Amino acid sequence: MDSIVVLMMCPMNSYLEQELDKRFKLFRYWTQPNQTEFLAHHADSIRAVVGNSGAGASADLIDALPKLEIVSSFSVGLDKIDLARCKEKGVRVTNTPDVLTDDVADLAIGLMLAVLRRICQCDKYVRSGAWKLGDFRLTTKGELGETYVSFLSSCSFSGKRIGIIGLGRIGLAIAERAEAFDCPISYYGRSKKADTNYTYYSSVVELASNSDILVVGCALTPETTHIVNREVLDALGPKGVLINIGRGPHVDEPELVSALVEGRLGGAGLDVFEKEPKVPEQLFGLENVVLLPHVASGTEETRKVMADLVLGNLEAHFSSKALLTPVV
Q1: What local confidence, expressed as pLDDT, does residue 150 receive?
Q2: Is 158 exposed, middle or buried (0-12, 13-18, 19+ CB in 10 A)?
Q3: Which segments constitute the D-isomer specific 2-hydroxyacid dehydrogenase catalytic domain (predicted)?
Q4: Which end of the chain is more exposed for a tag (fewer CB within 10 A), N or C?
């Protein structure tokens, strides 16, 4: 298969990149100084595209590659791939479901604990030498310009009401973990699930009103873009916590910043942002917020399994075998 040309959209995993280079003829899209000329020159040879949650296959890219047969995504999310155009052109699409579920769910619980128990602030307190001057206070106040912000107190996690937007693979895994902390679980989805006893709410606002912690775990679609808006944040309230391990555009980011700065929201744990890697600078000074650089699935073990799944799907396709995780 070393004559088959594969286009890798961006750097995403060194093991995956090395294996693609070994098994196929690999082009690295991000290294091309003039990408338009590059595509025009190689349009008739590129048969596969490998993308991820940040760079996939737009309609323009798909149209520019008449020999394209498959898009294999190094992620679960498909919002960076024009699925309709792929179907129209007969281009196969695969992703990496299931294999990252546990790590993402683990991190969601970690964010809840970090925000509620102020773990990052406690670590900073010890490292700074402040502990020698006195015990860590459970409540603090911070100042942003002329605006005073009351930071979330150190609170227990056990028993908190957890509301989950999207009870798919990851949402269900989060729920199962939270149940071990005696947390009541409720959820919002397009429809009520028959195979669960968790409380269902037919609107996100209603879910937020009945939750201490609201977790975003649904797929990003036009319908779920800004599914967490001002109304939802106000329903969650000044003692509520938002956890986002989904996608940045799920949340209206300016409204989130305002709610946190104004004290209308108690805290947030964020692994994703609307315009990554750009993060609103107003969040940097807030002690009631934990910020991560989109690393929910970022363990060595999971990333290798994801890479092997991408490779396996490509090899299956070009060997005329059934795809391992077909989407289209």
Answers
A1: 40
A2: exposed
A3: 11-327
A4: N
Length of the chain: 328
Q: How far apart are CA 26 and CA 48, in angstroms?
A: 10
Which residues are part of the catalytic machinery?
Answer: 247, 276, 294
Cβ burial of 133 (10 Å; 0-12, 13-18, 19+) is exposed
In contact, 7 and 48? CB cutoff 8 Å: yes
11/8 Cα distance (integer angstroms): 8
The model carries a pTM of: 0.89
Cβ contacts of 23 within 8 Å, gap of 6 or more: 1, 2, 311, 314, 315
**Which residues make Cβ contacts (< 8 Å) with residue 198, sequence separation at least 6?**
167, 175, 185, 186, 187
User: How many whole angstroms separate alpha carbon 8 and alpha carbon 71?
Assistant: 10
The model's pLDDT over 88-112, given as tens digits with 9 standing for 90+, comes to 999 999 999 999 999 999 999 999 9
| Residue 184 structure tokens | 């009541």
Q: Hey, how many other C-beta atoms are within 10 angstroms of the C-beta on 320?
A: 6
Residue 147: beta bridge partners?
144
Q: d(Cα 278, Cα 273) in Å, to the nearest integer?
A: 8
